[in-house]
Amino acid sequence: MSETLFIVRESAIHGKGLFANCNIIEGAVIGTIKYKPVKKDGPYVLWIDDTTGIQVDSDLKYINHNPEPNACYCEDLQVIAIKNIKTGDEITHDYGDDWA
């Protein structure tokens, strides 16, 4: 697919967000997280477990929290659509109850 699946723009949820640039079907791979390992929390850090943090170094870092998400992170660090996402919809993930 030559078309870029997503674009970054201002989000009503928080700061910048990731938005579908075309229709994305349920089960599609939106992207794979590029990262660097970190030991301290900070912006765009995802915690794999209690001691393993990764700082996301790609546009996928702009995926905002939503308790009713349309995407999820997989163990292999792929981001997958968990429902159909329409062009223009913000791509979101549920970061859990501790997300503030």
Describe the protein's topology.
Layout: E1 6-10, E2 16-20, E3 29-32, E4 35-38, E5 45-47, E6 53-56, E7 64-65, E8 71-73, E9 78-81, E10 90-93
Parallel strand pairs: 7-10
Antiparallel strand pairs: 1-2, 2-10, 3-9, 4-6, 5-6, 8-9
Shape: globular
Order of helices and strands: EEEEEEEEEE
CATH T-level topology of one domain: Beta-clip-like
Trace the largest sheet across and list its strands.
1-2-10-7
Sequence stretches where pLDDT stays below 50 over 5 or more residues: none
Radius of gyration, Cα only, in angstroms?
A: 13 Å
CATH class bucket of one domain: Mainly Beta
Helix content: under 10%
Question: So, CATH architecture of one domain?
Answer: Beta Complex
Number of helices: 0
Report mean pLDDT, rounded to a whole number.
Answer: 92
Q: What would you call the structural class?
A: mainly beta
**N- to C-terminal separation?**
36 Å
SS strand fraction: 35-45%
- The CATH H-level homologous superfamily of one domain: SET domain
Major sheet size, sense and barrel closure: 4 strands, mixed
Total strands: the figure is 10
